[in-house]
Amino acid sequence: MIDLVIDQRRKDLGGFEVGRVLPFHSRRMVGPFTFFDHMGPVAFEPGFPRNVDVRPHPHIGLSTLTYLFEGEITHRDSVGSQVEIRPGEVNWMTAGSGITHSERFEHLREHGGAMHGIQAWVALPDGQEEIAPSFSHHPRDEMPVYEEGGLKAALVAGKAFGASAKVPVFSPLFYVHWELAAGAKAGLPAEYPERAAYVAVGKVEAAGQVLHAGQMAVFKPGETITFEALEPSTVMLLGGEPVGPRFIEWNFVHSSKARIEQAKADWRAQRMKLPDLDDQEFTPLPEPPPPAQPMS
What is the DSSP secondary structure assignment for residue 271, as one 8-state letter? Predict the structure, then answer.
């Protein structure tokens, strides 16, 4: 049964739009997933300006998971990673005690083309929020896949449907990419207490309710959810075990409000390492909001 349907809210990032789904005012998280942005779809012409790129910015207390349907992104971070993210690959960056990174569209700037994907944030569990930052990249041939009856499924991260992905997650979760032909049927079992499905493309019926592109359904626990594609559709399944209350502010997620304020101060004072010297050209750096003021 569906507990809540969330419509994406379009947000302009200064050159392209994303559809923000999580956090939502009445549903901040689904399992450990605390942020969910649908990037594009957008078509770029060659030579578009560099201000479209995402400048260096910091994170603490979370892992970022970038997954593309189309396009290419150049990732750089402060632990020395530099990698091209391509469709079907998994880009997993764990911030822990603090990391900075940038995301550039260098290939698209040179050649033009479409960009379409999802970026999610996964909150780190208690006891893991301050681990050392790290990065891993997983090509599509590492991903467990399944195909039958008009359904193509890929396990992006975590464990689900009897399979395990190689992405080094820190708490029980699942993240699955479904491609469904019109008329295809599938089920999401009651394996985890918190589950959701986001329709990136197309239209499906889930638990007896029609969901359109740009909508996320959050399901009640305890029963298998049946799906039928009403047209060719792309659906992302996500969820897992909850990690406990978290503060979510700017680019930071943490169980401690004081720790977030410290991270904001560190970034403002330029005490956090940037990805590399080449990224210095993106200054002035994005500024976090000022410290929260007590209510009088």
Answer: -
Ranges 41-50, 90-99, 119-128, 161-170: which has the least confidence:
41-50
Here the tokens at position 99 are 């990391």
Tokens of 236: 């992302």
Task: Quote the tokens at residue 241.
Answer: 């075990």
**8 Å CB contact between 255 and 123:** no
Q: What is the Cα–Cα distance from 164 to 175, expressed in whole angstroms?
A: 11
**Residue whose C-alpha is closest to residue 59's, from 268, 267, 285:** 267
Given 2.60.40.1120, 2.60.120.10, 3.40.50.720, 3.10.20.30, which CATH number is that of 2-240?
A: 2.60.120.10
What is the H or E stretch that residue 212 is in?
strand 209-212
Phi, psi dihedrals of residue 153, rounded to the nearest 5°: -125, 140
Q: Are 236 and 198 in contact (CB under 8 A)?
A: yes
Cα dihedral 160, 201, 36, 109 sign:
positive
CA-to-CA dists, residue 283 to 43, 57, 150, 272, angstroms: 27, 11, 48, 14
Whether the upstream peptide bond of residue 284 has omega within 30° of 0, thus cis, is yes
Token readout for 11 is 């947000």
- For residue 217, which of 232, 231, 207, 202 has the smallest C-alpha distance? 207
23: preceding bond cis by omega (within 30 degrees): yes
Whether the pLDDT of residue 279 is over 70: the answer is no
Domain ranges of the chain: 2-240
Lowest mean pLDDT among 44-48, 171-175, 279-283: 279-283
pTM of the model: 0.93
3-state secondary structure of 171: coil
At residue 171's C-alpha, the angle toward residues 58 and 25, to 5°, is: 60
